[in-house]
C-alpha cells in the first residue's frame, strides 16, 4: 500500500487548482446596473465577448447580505493589444 497523502500535499494540489480572485473584475449584476439592462441581457453580452476572446471569466469576492465575503463569477476584459494579421483566403 502507498503512503497516505499529507495535508501539505493536499493544500498544494488544491491551491494550484483554485482560480485567484480579481477585485477589478465585474459581475453580471454590476454590468447590468451600469448598462441599465436586465441580468439576462448583460450575461448575453458577456458570453459574446468571451466567445470573441475579448473577455475572460475570473472570480471576485463580494459581501453577502450579512456582510461576509463570498466568491462569485466575474469577468474581465482582455488586453486589446494589436494581434498579428492573419491571411484570409
| Rg computed from alpha carbons, rounded to a whole number of angstroms | 19 Å
Q: What would you call the shape?
A: elongated
Number of helical stretches of at least 4 residues: 3
> Low-confidence segments, ≥5 residues, pLDDT <50?
none
Could you describe the largest sheet, including whether it forms a barrel? 2 strands, antiparallel
Overall average pLDDT: 83
What would your notes on this structure say?
- This protein has a two-stranded antiparallel sheet with strand order 1-2.
- Helix 2 (28-35) packs across helix 3 (39-51).
- It has helices at residues 7-17, 28-35, 39-51, and strands at residues 55-63, 69-77.
- With 89 residues, it is α+β, with helices and mostly antiparallel strands.
- The radius of gyration is 19 Å and the shape is elongated.
- The protein has a domain at 19-77: Arc Repressor Mutant, subunit A, CATH 1.10.10.
- The chain contains three helices and two strands; from the N terminus they run H-H-H-E-E.
Topology:
Blueprint: H1 7-17, H2 28-35, H3 39-51, E1 55-63, E2 69-77
Antiparallel strand pairs: 1-2
Helix pairs in contact: 2-3
Please summarize what this structure is.
It contains three helices and two strands, in the order H-H-H-E-E.
List keywords for this structure.
Arc Repressor Mutant, subunit A, 20% strand, 3 helices, 89 residues
Amino acid at each position: 500500500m502507498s503512503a497516505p497523502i499529507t495535508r501539505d500535499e493536499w493544500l498544494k494540489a488544491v491551491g494550484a487548482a483554485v482560480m485567484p480572485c480579481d477585485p477589478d473584475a465585474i459581475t453580471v449584476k454590476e454590468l447590468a446596473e451600469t448598462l441599465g439592462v436586465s441580468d439576462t441581457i448583460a450575461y448575453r453580452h458577456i458570453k459574446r465577448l468571451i466567445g470573441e476572446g475579448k473577455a475572460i471569466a475570473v472570480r471576485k469576492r463580494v459581501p453577502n447580505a450579512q456582510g461576509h465575503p463570498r466568491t462569485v463569477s466575474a469577468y474581465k476584459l482582455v488586453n486589446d493589444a494589436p494581434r498579428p494579421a492573419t491571411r484570409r483566403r
